[in-house]
Amino acid sequence: MRTQVGIVGAGPAGLLLAQVLHNAGIESVVLEVRSREYVERRIRAGVLEQGSVDLLQSAGLGERMQREGLVHHGIELRFEGEGHRVAMSELTGGRTITVYGQTEVVKDAIAAREQAGCPPLFEVSDVTVADLETVRPVIRYRNEDGPQELQCDVISGCDGFHGICRQAFPPGSLTVRERGYPFGWLGILADVAPSTDELIYAYHERGFAMHSLRSPTLSRLYLQCEPDDDIANWPDDRIWEELHRRLARNDGWTLAEGTILEKGITPMRSFVAEPMRHGQLFLAGDAAHIVPPTGAKGLNLAIADIRLLSDALIAFYADGDRRRLDSYSDDCLRRVWRAQHFSWWMTSMLHRFPDSDPFSEELQLSQLRYVVSSPAAATSLAENYVGLERV
Ligand code: APR
Ligand code: PHB
Known about the structure:
The structure is a single chain. This protein is of the alpha+beta class. The chain has helices at 12-23, 36-41, 50-58, 63-68, 88-91, 102-115, 236-247, 298-319, 323-350, 358-373, 375-386, and strands spanning 5-8, 28-31, 47-49, 70-72, 75-79, 82-86, 97-99, 125-130, 138-143, 146-151, 154-157, 175-191, 200-202, 209-215, 218-225, 259-274, 277-278, 281-283, 289-290. Strands 6-5-13-14-15-12-16-19 form an 8-stranded mixed beta sheet. Helix 1 packs parallel to helix 6 (102-115) and helix 8 runs antiparallel to helix 9 (323-350). The chain starts with a strand and ends in a 5-residue tail after the last helix. Residues 8-14, 31-34, 39, 44-45, 102, 127, 158-160, 162-164, 285-287, 298-299, 302 line the site of adenosine-5-diphosphoribose.
């Protein structure tokens, strides 16, 4: 089989790339190891920057997002028993964020691929990439009919952090920069109307907590936990008790409880692999970089990579212009490092570190008080949170 662009991975990065290329008349094939049901059920992030919303819309994926997405103008930072609103829109000339689950973005994109007559190939196995330094790179994989080979002009590695594409770079050609954190996030999806209109990020001596949402009837909440914590340590009662404590406010605000539909623990990591290209293989999204979720940047970075990669491929197929493909990695990494800094900074300000001391704790609180009282500091947080246009 032959295609123009071979795409490994049907997460938001791979699916959006296929969609944008299709709209520009460029052929692609998306290969995915998991089943469609699995990919459509996986619960992930939920915050879209304006620029991400714009790209999804211009790609023809905005119809349900426009109806069901919740447009937010601010977030709350909660500490010392008080809530402080960061008025993001006021501070950024009217920019907003949209709360719409990554799961929903993925469902919309799969439906669009299906409607266009080229759905992703799900449940393939033994995926490998080869001949990357040639003009005919190949993807080999196995489906129910046996071993297959897909010849491409270009391969895009959109296969997430645990994928195979980054591993296919020759030894020594990748530089990895990373940082681990001594905690994880326990996330729940609860069948209850959110107790807040805006996202709450709470710093508490027992650890970070967060109240997010998915719809008028579904809440998404997080608790800082041990990095290697076992979900079996967290019966539902303990989760709610801990959320009540960490989210408590002095003015009598209350948290409504509901049935927990999903729960899971995610480790926290900052990771960048550079460069994001080797020969005709281009990495995008989590395959190349991971951020801790505190800045809500993971999904937005994946979408920003695809904007650059699709523009570069469209220019290449229009008249053979390779300049944007050649600068792809550098162009992405500028934004990636800005998001890395912001995500690390939010994470450091809002979590309780196990090796912390009273000095560090006072620094964290002082930083929080500064962010909510100084318009300059609040603007800095807000413009990063809604997404910088220029990086
Ligand atoms: N072959 C084919 N597909 C693969 C392979 C492989 N060898 N390995 C992994 N995959 C698939 C995964 O099953 C997954 O569906 O690649 C997809 C990668 O999708 P994501 O992990 O969602 O990554 P990405 O599209 O870059 O989106 C980044 O996901 O983890 C969140 O916070 C992150 O919001 C960000 C977003
Ligand atoms: C979410 O809704 O899942 C979410 C929101 C904001 C974050 C992280 C996760 O910073």
